[in-house]
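Minutes, project check-in
Item: structure for the 303-residue chain
Input as provided by the requester:
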Amino acid sequence: MALTRVADRLSAVDDQNLTRLGFHADDRRDVALAIRRALGEPAVLARVQLVADQLGRQIGKFEGNTDPFAIPNDFDELDPEVLDKEWGVGILPLLALLATADDVAAFHAARGIDPAISTASLSDLGQQAWVHRRTFDGFGLHTYGWMRIAWSGALYWLGRLQFNLTRYQDEWVVSTHIPESGPLTPQACADSFRRARAFFAEHFPEHPTTRFHCDSWLLDPQLVDVLEPGSNMVKFQQLWQLDGRQRDGDGDALFFVFRRRGEVDVDTLPQDTSLQRAIVAKIRSGGHWHVCAGTFDQDRFAG
């Protein structure tokens, strides 16, 4: 991808493109401003080009990728800390993702993937910018590392849930993610699991899978003790057979429930729901939440 191609692609981005990619109005305005600024700064555009090149090379590669957002040791024209200070967190990676969205869509099309599924999956870029705004009250993209999964062509938004191909315990699995997009009802989840089972078998037959996988703080068994037995979250958790491993999940719980990062004064958090109250009570008492991993057989949602 030549430097002029990235410039041309960014120049061609309009409000319709950004809406299709899931950007909210405030973020669409700020993306347009960032594009105009980047097009006038050759060193910045070169940085965007570098990331875009790496992203493009990793489309279709679902494991063993390098970090496309890392600045190589010999690329010293721009300092990462200066970029974040002068531009905002993740703005240049966001522009690189934006410049390569058509390449990912072309990969989807070559796999015979429904354009509606392609558009929904790529719209996670705008969703993540919206998450950043809600978390930090400003424009940015602090989850750009997560976006590498979608831009590799591994991640798809199928109904209520998102799924991606990945390796787990020496086999390919379909990993499950829970975007913030409505109630986590058993019916909606079942529909997504059925769709995912058929989708990956059809479009990625070279990576046969038999299990769904999930790695999330929502699989922490302690949630069963604080939520209603018939709640959507408890029913979702009961699907999974845990592997026994866990890691600290306080940060995940605070981020996904309250959209807070870093040091958080729990006394300032809203206490409007039973889940919010449970998260705060556990941390305030000196306890901790955990991220757990589990799997279940895809045949549970056959047909």
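Outcome recorded: The chain has two domains: 3-153, 186-301.
No further action items on this chain.
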